[in-house]
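User: Hey, my collaborator sent me this sequence without any context and asked if I could get a structure. I don't really work with proteins. Can you help?
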Amino acid sequence: LSGLDPAQPYFQGTPIEVRLDKSDADFVDIIHTDSAPTIPNLGFGIISAIGHIDFYPNGGKQMPGCGKNPVSQIVDLDGIWEGTRDFVACNHLRSYKYYSDSIIYPDGFLGYPCASYDLFQSGNCFPCPEEGCPNMGHYADKFKDKIKKDFLKLYLNTGEARDFPLWRYKVTVTLSGRSKVKGYVNVALYGSGGNTKQYQITKGTLKPDNTYTAYIDAEVNVGEVTKVKFLWNNNWINPTFPKLGAATITVEAGQN
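Assistant: No problem. I've predicted the 3D structure and written it out in C-alpha cell form, which is a compact way to encode the shape of the chain:
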C-alpha cells in the first residue's frame, strides 16, 4: 500500500485506527512531499513516519519547482488546469508525479537511510548500505524483505520538473599545479548510460595538492563511467597564466 503524501489536517497525531498506518497492509510505503505545519505553512501532508518505509524527497516539506512565481506556474506546460491546481497544492501533488515517474525509472529515486535531511545533504549517509537502498514509488516493495528496523526514514533529491529522478554521486578531486589561485572547479561525468551537465565541485581558493569533495545529484544514471571532464576557471584574466590540473578524480556511485 503506497501513501502519496497522506493528509495532515485531522489525521496527524491520531490513533492508528483513524489514519494510514503500517498495520494496514503487509507492506506500507509513504512519500512525504508537503509535511510543513498546516499553520502557518499550509502543509497538507503528515510528517510522522507511519509506514514500513517513509521517503522524504527534498526533505519532505518544500519541493523544487514549487517556488515559481504564480503566473509561470499557472500557465504551466501541462495547461492552465493543472497549473492552477499545482499553484494551490504544488508540494502535495508532487507525490503522485514522483510515483508516476518512478514507474518508468526502475533504477531511479533511491532513498538513502538517514537520521535527517541535513545529514543526507552533507553526505553523511552515502553510499547505500550493504542491503542497498529502496526505490521510492512503484518499485519500493522490492525492499520488503530487507527491512530491519521498526521504521525507516529515507532521503533523496529530485529534479524541478519532469523527468524527476536524480542519481547521487560523490566526486573527489585532488588538484595539481604550482600555485594557489581563486576560482572554481567543475566536473561532468560521461558513461555507458549517458552524460551529465557540469557540476561545481568547489569555489574559492584552489590549492594544488588539496582534495575537494562534492555530492552531486545528476539528471542521468551514467552507468559505467568512461570519462570525466574537468574544468577550472579563475573568473578573471590573470597575467601570470596560472595552470591547474586534476591529479586524481574519484567518482563513487551511491547505489553500488
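In plain terms: The chain has two domains: 1-165, 167-253. You can pass these C-alpha cells on to your collaborator as they are.
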